[in-house]
Amino acid sequence: MHHVAIHDLRLRGQGSADLEAIPLVILVGVTGVGKSTTLAALEALGCPLALLPDRRELTDRFILGGEPVRDREERFRRTAAYREQHPGGMSAVLAGLSLARPPQEQLVFDGLRGLEEVEHAARHLPRARFVVLDAPDVVRIERLVSRADAFDAVSVQVSGSRLEALENLEGVREVLSEAELRELARLPVEPAELAAGARIVIAERRNYDPQAAAERLMTLDPLRTLYLDTATQGPELVASRIAQWL
Fold it and tell me: Which fold has domain 2-136+208-245?
């Protein structure tokens, strides 16, 4: 898998290949659905792909202006403010870019989130196709806790048991049922780690509706969208299905 360097990106019209005019495969999904795992599995299959700088890197460069913002909730707030000024959010960033040279392999981007971004992409990236990766919120939290990524940083103060730490999170009942809270509370992790993972998912759901995004993409030409549940299909199967679809 070839990785496109961020210094190989130009503003639209200043490179040799505008992204809005290129066949592009876009991964769609919120945190913890398995986008990075899927890309690793595709690489293991030897798929001839060219991977654009990911959402995190483009956010740092074009939305945050290079400012080091590590707290996930603060990043959600900043990107929401950007979407208010630039409808489409990350899709608008993507559609405004060009490559220094035409790609030799299938171009892939990781990734878009939420209804507004995918609606913008469907209109302004007419040659794009979409791979929707999905997983239940409780599975996403389990994955966040287990992956221990330094990027998943939020400020959280807890006391008491794991269940109490979860129950005290603002907005938790809007996302997780009582049964899901009790299921998560059985994970063998520190209450603060568990609460941090849940807080990221809760904050993200305030900004992005994964179900609405998936439903919108499924209304497109069936050849443009592939939906995959990563909770019921392992990485190798998911990658195999994507490779066949490509």
Answer: Rossmann fold (3.40.50)
214 by DSSP, 3-state: which?
A: helix
∠41-43-48 over CA atoms, to 5°? Answer: 135
Question: Is-above-0.70 flag for pTM?
Answer: yes
- Measured CA distances, 48 to 39, 44, 218 (Å): 12, 11, 26
Structural domain spans, the chain: 2-136+208-245
- Report pLDDT digits (tens) over 155-205: 667 778 999 999 999 999 999 999 999 999 999 999 989 999 999 999 899
Cis peptide before 88 (omega within 30 of 0): no
Give the span between the Cα atoms of 221 and 126, in whole angstroms: 11
Position 227, amino acid: Y
Q: What are the strands of the beta sheet with 9-11, ordered from one edge? A: 9-11, 97-99, 17-18
**Residues in Cβ contact with 147 at an 8 Å cutoff, skipping those fewer than 6 apart:** none
Q: Distance (Å, rounded) from C-alpha 199 to C-alpha 89? A: 22
Residue 10's H or E segment, with its range, is strand 9-11
> Which of 231, 195, 235, 233 is CA-nearest to residue 210?
231
- CB neighbour list of residue 64: distance below 8 Å, 6 or more residues apart: 75, 78
How long is the chain?
246
